[in-house]
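Exam review. A common question shows you a sequence with its structure tokens and asks you to describe the fold in words. Practice with the pair below. Do the first one on your own.
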Amino acid sequence: MRVLIVEDNAALANGVFTALDTIGLAVDVLNDGLEADEVLRVQQYDVVVLDLNLPGLDGLDVLANMRSRSDNTPVLVLTARDHISDRVAGLDLGADDYLTKPFELIELEARVRALLRRNSENKSPVIELGTLSFNSVARTTHIGSQVLDLPKREFCLLELFISKIGQVISKDQIADGLANFDEDVTSNAVEIYVSRLRKKIQISGINIKTVRGLGYLMERP
């Protein structure tokens, strides 16, 4: 699952990034409201963590623009504004939750997890494929009764394949899905990640097929 942090305080943004990265989420960070507005028009996220006091474009305007496009991505608003009127304004514009600075990172983690659960409440977060069980909210994978311990990028890769099962995914699509704004993923790295994941899940009966010249295809067991 992918989270966008929009926060112009570099130290705070780094702390939030580390906290969410540690629990296995793919995280992008932006520090400008106008840039965030542009990215959110073309990129889909599972949760947006949005500061209000931003350069370029105020966070409330970013939120308003999202909702005007019928973008219902869950939004957790972060702000130093502690007036009731500011909270009401954010909630009226469609914020899903509100956290006033300063806050504990452990609370932010809990609120992001809650938004992820809420966002998937109409669909089960657990997907069963053969003997493989994948939980997108708990960030766990099992083969039979055994826990499959996957590094973050391999987990995100498996999540991507499951979301596109039966469809060919190009190397560029995989690279985009695994990268963040600060670190690109090369074509060679994609091949390595796919090879490692393929070996780890083959016992479940799932095959990741190489489609020459096009990419990869995960077949149902």
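Now try the second one, then compare your answer with the model answer below.
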Amino acid sequence: MNTETKIEPRLMTEEADFLQIKSVDHVHFYVGNAKHAMYYWWKAFGFKPAAYSGLETGNRDFASYVLESGQARFVISAAYTPGNALAAHHMIHGDGVKVIALEVDDVEKAWQATTSRGGKSGWAPREEKDDFGIYRTSAIYTYGETLHVFVDRADYKGVFAPTYTPIKNKEAQSTGLAAIDHIVGNVQLGKMNHWVNFYHQVMGFRQLMHFDDKDISTEYSALMSKVMQNGNGRVKFPINEPAEGKRKSQIEEYLDYYLTPGAQHVAILTGDILETVEKLRRNGVEFLRVPDTYYEMLPDRIGKIKEDYKTIQELGILVDKDDEGYLLQIFTRPIQDRPTMFVEVIQRHGAQGFGKGNFKALFESLELEQDRRGNL
């Protein structure tokens, strides 16, 4: 399915941030077994199961669970029959993100504004109704088969959306994951600027940062990345493309197995990364590990911080700084069988960057994982 949007370079004539996005409303995963995936996010990551949609609620097409941790909301869905669109998506891509939903005040205005600027429509504005009110959405395509769904909840008081019913008696042991910090998209070689233009021209985003193949490279592979941000700074979408290298990069490996561009990882904020990572490890979450040599120069490179450097090394956490402060981050191994999507856990102490000082060590760790899989 070719959904690539044709964007003609031109100057923005309207005021930036015309969408007035409030937040990332939810991230919707299409998976092979929704009940199993729900259990993973519940027991491993500490997300609380909040709502369910399925045969028992009148949904004859797919089973779906809503999970929440702080302000982060994930939806996990799987098809009942092989003829369903969810099943077709999963057959091609495996488990992955289908929808990045954005809360707005007016889904019709958002759809009109984006499609008039060259966005490809996913669906026109529509309403879903039940006893709890009206749930309004519209949608456009972004990279690959990924959708941005515009959501208006002003007149809906239900648990999530029509056909969803509250899940009771399923408490979660919180790991401290609080909100979505950013979502990274992987695109093909030569397409990064296309999608940068898409977010700028179609959605009114501005470029926040740019990393080239000198910033993100090792002896064998490299990538380039540009970070797009909406007007209020609450929504950040880095866009990655592979760069020429001696061997296959992590972006190329992703594209080989996902088969189209798609969401590479979701970064989730925490207020205490040491406690969060300790809990996640106890729950069985597997993280990438950089070489211990990374930590030898870390105190000299970063300086004084609130956290204990010894504990940081024991947990495998990375640290970086910029002019505004510092950040701590760590990356999981792929969370499904295919080496595609993973999760980042991040804590910010003022820093607004994305860990540029950690890129080389992280890439070397990723390449070791690729080599073990025979994909380097």
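Model answer, second protein: The longest helix spans residues 359-373. Residues 188 and 241 are 6 Å apart (CA to CA). Full marks require stating both points clearly.
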